[in-house]
Amino acid sequence: PRSTLFPYTTLFRSRAHERPPTEDEVGALVRAASARGAYGFTFGYLIGFVAYTGLRLGEMAHVEGRDIAFDGGTPSRAPGATVHVRKPKKPGPPRTVAVFTPGVLAARAMLSAPDRLLFTTPRGHRFDRKSLWPHWRKTLDAAGLDFDFHQLRHFTATWLLDKGASADDVAVQLGHTDRHGRPNGDLVRRLYGHPD
Questions:
Q1: How far apart are CA 67 and CA 150, in angstroms?
Q2: Tell me, what's the pLDDT at 11?
Q3: Which of 20, 60, 63, 132 fits a disulfide with 55 by CB distance 3.0 to 4.6 angstroms?
Q4: In sequence order, what DSSP letters do the residues of the chain get, joined into one string?
Q5: Cα 44 from chain centroid?
Q6: What are the beta bridge partners of residue 77?
Q7: Residue 117 exposure: Cα atoms within 13 Å on the Cβ side
Q8: How far apart are CA 179 and CA 184, in angstroms?
Q9: pLDDT band at residue 6, thresholds of 50, 70 and 90?
């Protein structure tokens, strides 16, 4: 149940045992957000970016235009991008992760200046759990879905595993390391990977 005092606290409850959203459900969320007016497009892009990078809310909230590097792709591979995560959740060095095609489209649409945040609230502030909550809840309701924002990371892990990525590669993408700083593929297999 949701807290009436702090309804946004349920955004991130542990749901490792639950099924992650599907690609169709992520698409439905993006469409539902985009249908909610001018700011809805921004929030839809935010959902697409997070779903196709696996960034945590706090990591996404610190991404600036200068952190995105686009590549040109090749005839056999679509253009892609990388994002430099300067503020990882866990102690350790910054990391660079891949941005997959739907996330690239979102990043291109939102890129306004190198020194500006890629995604902000309607008032131009950095996102946090409390500021994300009303947009997330309204989008879920409009799409007829119910899952935590954090489940977008579960989607990323599952999507990558389904595409043939190794659990260690997914661990690098999500920023999961063991106590020695090595990619923790075992954690990915246990908590995040739910391949079909």
A1: 22
A2: 45
A3: 60
A4: ---SS-GGGGGG---TTSPPPPHHHHHHHHHHHHTT-HHHHHHHHHHHHHHTT---HHHHTT-BGGGEEE---BTTB---EEEEESS-SSSS--EEEEE-HHHHHHHHHH---TTSBSS--TTSPPP-HHHHHHHHHHHHHHHT----TTHHHHHHHHHHHHTT--HHHHHHHHT-B-TTSSB-HHHIIIII----
A5: 11
A6: 74
A7: 17
A8: 9
A9: very low
Cβ–Cβ < 8 Å for 193, 54: no
- Cβ–Cβ under 8 Å, residues 97 and 85: yes
Six token digits for residue 14? 């542990």
Is-contact 47 147, C-beta < 8 A?
Answer: no
Q: How far apart are CA 76 and CA 175, in angstroms?
A: 28
Q: Which tokens go with 183?
A: 């990619």
Contact 19, 148 (CB under 8 A): no
In sequence order, which residues have a C-beta less than 8 Å from that of residue 139 and are 6 or more positions away? 29, 32, 33, 36, 40, 43, 47
Structure tokens at 29: 């969320």
